[in-house]
Fold this protein.
Amino acid sequence: MNIGITGTGCYLPSIITKNTDFSNHTFLNADGTPFNSTNDIIIEKFKGITGIEERRYAENHLNASDLAFHAAEKAIADAGIDKETLDYIIFAHNFGDVAHGRSQGDTLPSLATRVKHLLQIKNPKCVAYDLLFGCPGWIEGVIQAHAFIKSGIAKKCMVIGAETLSRIVDPYDRDSMIYSDGAGATIIEAGSQGQILAHESATYANEEAYYLFYGESYSKESGSDRKYIKMHGRKIYEFAVTYVPDAMRACLDKSGARIEDVKKIFIHQANEKMDEAIVKRFYRSYGMDMPKNCMPMCINQLGNSSVATIPTLFDMVRKGKMENQSIQKGDVAIFASVGAGMNINAFVYRY
């Protein structure tokens, strides 16, 4: 029984924020002291490392669940299914609905339930729940949907990844330029032409558990007890390039597919340099160079929207919306991610 992806959809917010929009920001070190460099130099170095030139922010009246609803509608239409036949809605996020100008995340009711409500699904046996797994949340949701279908518990599942990270960033932290908003949704079904061949997941929770965390503003004069997303960037980079290639290799070896069969790698859009290092090390483990055009990237225009990056990227490639990127029937692709936990996961997919 093939279990695979039959429909995809994404929602790209309309507010485009370019790197130059940060020219007048006040960026501070973690101890509250100013940088010695000018903002122009900070932004130039930032682009050189991350590859980000611009990012998308959600309109003020929309929350993460709203972005997810728009992506979900597109995925359902793309799959050509009756929404009432969905057995599960699995919604991966990290911070819930954070209203514009607010700091508190809202997760009651669950965001999956909110999407079901917005879709006006009446069937009570369509079970809706949220999944917290850091940036790898969407992949973990796909793995869970695959397990539900393989066991006979479900036939059709929708997996969503959506986030509004722009609302939980410290404006004094230069890392705030990394984060963005967006949503991607995917329909997973039995009897599809595509097939999930293997998957791999792991959680490292020693000192790695706090590489990403909630912390106070770098401005000691902010006068607020509000907390923001923070990270130890160098440690995350070293962790990712060490462990993600191994997880990808273990997953591919388990799948029965050959490295020569792999045409695309859909990796979490976290940092262009880091993603390239991960994929190059993966291919090096097979004694190969990284093939050209094997790793689609949308981070330069969309930034890092956490759980939304991979389903958004896949939807764009699948629908021919990325220059020089396509995927054909029979192609093998690897989906891989790393993020807060620290969590790592991957799955191998024959399209």
Q: What stands out?
A: The longest helix spans residues 233-255. The chain is about 30% helix and 25% strand. The longest strand covers residues 181-190.
